[in-house]
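Researcher: Structure for this, please.
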Amino acid sequence: MTRRLTTVALPLLAATMFATPVALAQGRQPSKPAPATSATTPAAAPPAAPADDADKEDPRAIYLSGELGFTRADIGGFTDSFAFDKTGANGLVAGLGIGYRYKGLRIGGRFRDASTTEYSLWSLMGEVGFGLPFKPLTPIIFIHAGYIFDEGVERSVVASSLPRANVLTPNIELDGLVVGAEVYAAYSVTKFFKVGPFIGLDLTFLHRAQPSPPQSLQPIDDNTGSNALFGDSGNGVGYMLNLGVRVTGDIAF
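Model: Predicted structure, token format:
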């Protein structure tokens, strides 16, 4: 009986001793960590463009400009053989310009009409300018040169040389060279539009062609036909002082 119990008990004890460490090991296994939840991070917004860049003018543009102002002209202010009664006059100046701008450099052309009390002068000029890097008021310095010619000379300019019975004022023709410089203080209203005052000084080198003998209701005496106006041509070196307001628009590309 004792031997039978021993025979049964020994295998059970061995099985129990073997199973206990396994159960303990299984009970002590660490629990798996919970999966980490990934938080969704919103994409960073692109940085806003600085305000200075938004207001900065385009480096390349076609510029268009118009001007209106006062002019003081004296076409014989330095030398004079026109044989006119007067060479100086006041009036209005108006002009239109077009050109190409690359950064501060400007290259273009300008038409200008100077309508004074004694004569009207038209000019077609090429111009080169450079704007200094200041904002919002940009000083722009221009130099220009071109062809100048008259669009009419008043009777009062040559009245003393005409015969008494003259009715139709003879045609007096003037043409020559104009060169000058000016400063334009351009205020930037927007990146495409500027306005401001300008002041400039032009030198004129004009030639007067010899006119045809004047018409008269009475015979013309020899003194009238050979006086300084009708007897020969003339020349003069003078100036034009211009002061006014200019507006400029840019077409960027």
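Researcher: Any notable elements?
Model: Residues 58-252 form a domain with the Porin fold (CATH 2.40.160.20). Confidence is low (pLDDT under 50) at residues 12-25.
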